[in-house]
Amino acid sequence: MKDQTDIPAVMAEIGARARAAAAELAFADPQAKRAALEAAADAVAEHSAEIIAANAEDMAYGRDKGLSPAMLDRLLLDEGRIGGIADSLRAVAAQDDPVGEVIAEWDMPSGLHIRRVRTPLGVIGVIYESRPNVTADAGALCLKAGNAVILRGGSESFHSSLAIHACLIEGLKAAGLPEDAIQLVPTRDRAAVSEMLTMTDHVDVIVPRGGKGLVGLVQREARVPVFAHLEGIVHIYIDRAADAQKTLDVVLNAKTRRPGICGAAECLLIHRDVLDTLGRAVVGALVDTGVTVHGDAGMQAFSGVVPATEADWGREYLDMNIAAKVVENIDDAIAHIREYGSNHTDCILTEDDAAAARFFQRLDSAILMRNASTQFADGGEFGMGAEIGIATGKMHARGPVGAAQLTSFKYLVTGDGTLRP
Question: For 372, phi and psi rounded to 5 degrees?
């Protein structure tokens, strides 16, 4: 490896090695990829003590930087979460290999037989913040889909990511696959991010996973195509036909289970007809659990509510805060979400099928939910084993990005001396 202070040279070397690895991975034996991920899962379990020690360094670094409790929670690894990383690796390993899958197949009157089949994208660059488990998830999904990947984790998770990456390399070695298939940028220098965004000769797509600042930087500077993972400005609309117990349970889980993840609820919209009954109960329960509720004028009379400002609408808190607003009806709620949402995940709580259908039809978020916690906005919970992020754009990949979404396709056309007249 070149002098790490020469960032352009470092990144060019990483890119060239990734491109060479991608050429091999495109036709790698599915069993070899599966074996690599299973061996990596075993390595994660075996080296949990080393990973926890590395994570302790990152936690100290994060505290020194003044990260919020919710952000520190995103960063934390313990035995349970390390077990979850190993489980995710095994889950991805067990999935059907998407490469070569026939998506469609047909015959033409000319005598041609045409198949559209899945093929790897090539080299994927993943830029992410805080959550060290993304190192494993992104590495596993890219490998499963036959892609090489360049991982650039956040400065806060530097040591944790290195420790997890070492386990992925163990898996590649055990399966006889190129070690350059999964590379981790070996520096905290932010210049590496800017360099990756312009590596059009080596990188086929960039996936940013982080806050508004990171995603904005990527979208402004990238010359490589981007799967955008924007903020999780997640809304929950409490309809007038909402069930009281379901609503209390779902809202509390959606906000407080892990407030620092992108599926955490950030704004509550309450139908005026249930404001003084169900609305009061939900707001009270949130306040009692330590959530700061930033309410509009309609609910500032509720105990514990602080006045909302314009900045609270469309804000991703990633902490024990939530915005709350009274709406006149479902269309008022839909209009608010269209104006302030990020097309990530939005939820309606209602027993009215027509209201749910209207909500689903008239909003275009990547994920729409009914009577379920928005914390399920996760590829693992969608049966994908893991996710590389939630894509909020509309091109190519949308919603949880799993292995299948990290492929393109090609056409295989067969004839028998077939000529075009």
Answer: -145, 145
